[in-house]
Structures are given as C-alpha cells and as structure tokens.
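testing teh design pipeline on a random one, pls ignore if ur not involved
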C-alpha cells in the first residue's frame, strides 16, 4: 500500500544523459550562478588581462588603472569581433578588426574616422560588464546582471575559509591537474558530495586522512559543507604544526553550487575543484594546488600526485561506470539512503543537490524536462 512515507528516489536518468537538459543548464543555470574565472594573482598590474570561457561565452578579466578587477564579455561593440585573446598586458584594448580601442574600464576611446559620423557619442559605447567578485583571492563571475552577492549564496563561507587558511590571500596557484571524465558534470559533483562510497573505494583517504565515521555534509545556503574528524595526524605524509593556529589539524570542504569546491587538508593546505561541463557526457575537473606566494613546495607537489593517483583515479572509474549505467534501459532510479541522523552513510546531501539540479533543469524548460 502506498503511503506518504515512500522513499525519496534518485534523479531520473535523463537529467544526466539528455543533451536538451544540458542545453537548458547552459543557458540557465551556468549563466545565472557564480562560476570560477581565475585567480586574482593572474592580474598583477593595471592592464593585465586573461580570457576564459563559461556558459558558451568568451569573457575576460582585466585590472584597471586603479587596481580594480573588472570582467567583460569579450566582444567589440562595433561589429562584434572578439576583442582579446589568451592573456597579456595592454594600456588600451584594441580590436583587431577595425582598431576601435577601449580603456581599461571598457569605455570606447577612439576609432578610425569615427568623428566623421554626425552624432557619434563615444561616451555611450562601453564593453558589456559582468558581475565579478574576489572571494579570498578567487575570482568568480555571474552572467546574471542582477546576481545576488556570493555572501548570500554561500553564507559564512568567506570568513570560515579565511579562518581555516589564514594565509589564503597570499596563496598562488602552484599546480593544476586536469582530469577529463566521461560523465555528466552532475554525476561527478554528486560523487564529490557524498562519502557513503568512501570506505569501500578510497582506502588512502578513509584510512590516512579522515575518520569516515565522523564525516558529515550539511547545506549552508547553496554551499555543501563537509566536516570530519581526522586520523591520528602522526601518520600524515607531511609534517603539521598543530600549534600554528586553531584549524591546523582540520580537514574541511566547502562545495559551492554548482561547480566549485574549496578543500582544506590538515596543515591549512588549500586545494580546489573546478568542474567544467563540456556536454551531457563529458566534464573536465581541474584540481588546483596552492602555496604561499607560489613558492616551490615539495609537500604540495607530493599531495597533488598522491591525490591524482588515489582518490581521483578511484573516482574516475566510479563516475564513468555510473554514466554508462544511467544510459541502460535497465536502470530504474533507486531510493536515496536518507538517515535522519545524517552522517557518513547517509545521502541527505545528494537529496539537497538533486533538488537544486531538478530546479535548474525544470525552471527554464518544463516541457523539455517534463
Ligand atoms: S568589430 Fe571591432 S573595431 Fe570593428
Ligand atoms: Fe569519491
């Protein structure tokens, strides 16, 4: 007999396999959420810029004369040629098509023969700006001009991160590890967001770093906050000065919906996950590793290698198998394991994540997703 106590079922397979749903996410979710653009240290002096892609758009960040960082769509306001490529430094931004030039604040400065045009108002022409935030040195942009600030999306995260990584403003990227996965971005993000699979699949992580029985993941606005107690830190592969600060012995992580995560290892060691969705069946995960002022660090390099060879490698096989399974005619979405006490063997975090995923797909395309 059916009751209203039916278990909550996992998301329907088409959310992970249907290119039409990926299209809806690209136009909707990816264009109206905070997405990682790059690290502030990539822009050292006025005129420094770098380009990046998100939600099918080319964009760039540039430092202006006052040291402020702006983000713009990478398109000339004359006849739409792409303005800049790659990264570099420039006093003015000059379009390669007809040499219209813009100042570092995006305002049109000059163009060949524009004075010949009666009524041409240079001051009316400006590159199209995109909201940008510097979040502890990490630059995030949001294509929604009315985007709510990151502190509303992710309450408390900025100050928690600063406390867990006291030197966070001095960090520079030391190493990027690129991990292509043949699966939908949501399969990879879900896999990151539960530790129900950890004990069975991540021996190094579950026996070397965390105590899985204490692992928990709770929503904090649109952040999923991972907390755990750690193993005896004497067994860690690098030295940790537990007296350095209150958080020196802590592992913690902050997943920022939809595609970024800050993760801190004992010793206040920050590393990041940045998912880039390619299409319905492919995602690239960028693991970022950092050190103070970007100085060489054997510890960080070794951690990056160990992480790639263990946790990352183990997860690739899991997520790719799931993607194949989601395409099977034999798959019927199963019940999520919702333990009212939460904890490591509960999938309550997946229920939260899947409700965000369902909203994002259904908000714009009830018919396509229905
Ligand atoms: S399109 Fe840029 S100057 Fe013409
Ligand atoms: Fe995993």
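output:
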């Amino acid at each position: 007999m059916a009751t209203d106590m039916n278990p909550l079922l996992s998301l329907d397979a088409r959310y992970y396999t249907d290119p039409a749903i990926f299209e809806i996410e690209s136009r909707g979710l990816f264009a109206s959420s905070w997405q990682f653009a790059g690290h502030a240290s990539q822009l050292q002096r006025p005129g420094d810029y770098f380009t990046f892609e998100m939600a099918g758009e080319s964009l760039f960040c540039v430092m202006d004369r006052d040291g402020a960082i702006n983000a713009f769509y990478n398109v000339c306001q004359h006849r739409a040629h792409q303005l800049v490529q790659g990264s570099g430094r420039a006093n003015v931004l000059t379009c390669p098509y007809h040499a219209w030039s813009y100042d570092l604040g995006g305002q049109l400065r000059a163009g060949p023969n524009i004075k010949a045009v009666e009524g041409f108002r240079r001051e009316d022409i400006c590159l199209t700006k995109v909201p940008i935030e510097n979040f502890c040195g990490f630059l995030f942009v949001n294509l929604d001009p009315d985007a709510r600030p990151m502190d509303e999306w992710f309450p408390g995260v900025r100050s928690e991160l600063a406390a867990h990584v006291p030197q966070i403003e001095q960090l520079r990227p030391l190493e990027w590890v690129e991990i292509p996965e043949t699966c939908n971005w949501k399969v990879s993000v879900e896999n990151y967001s539960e530790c129900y699979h950890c004990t069975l699949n991540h021996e190094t992580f579950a026996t070397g770093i965390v105590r899985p029985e204490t692992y928990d993941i709770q929503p904090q606005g649109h952040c999923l906050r991972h907390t755990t107690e750690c193993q005896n830190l004497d067994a860690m592969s690098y030295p940790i000065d537990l007296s350095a600060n209150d958080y020196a012995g802590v592992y913690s992580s902050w997943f920022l919906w939809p595609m970024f995560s800050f993760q801190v290892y004992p010793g206040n060691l920050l590393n990041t996950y940045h998912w880039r969705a390619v299409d319905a069946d492919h995602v690239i995960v960028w693991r970022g590793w950092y050190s103070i002022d970007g100085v060489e660090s054997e510890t960080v390099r070794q951690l990056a290698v160990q992480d790639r060879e263990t946790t990352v490698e183990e997860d690739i096989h899991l997520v790719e198998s799931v993607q194949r399974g989601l395409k099977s005619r034999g798959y019927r979405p199963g019940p999520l394991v919702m333990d009212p006490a939460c904890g490591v063997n509960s999938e309550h975090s997946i229920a939260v994540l899947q409700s965000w995923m369902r909203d994002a797909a259904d908000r714009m395309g009830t018919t396509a997703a229905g």
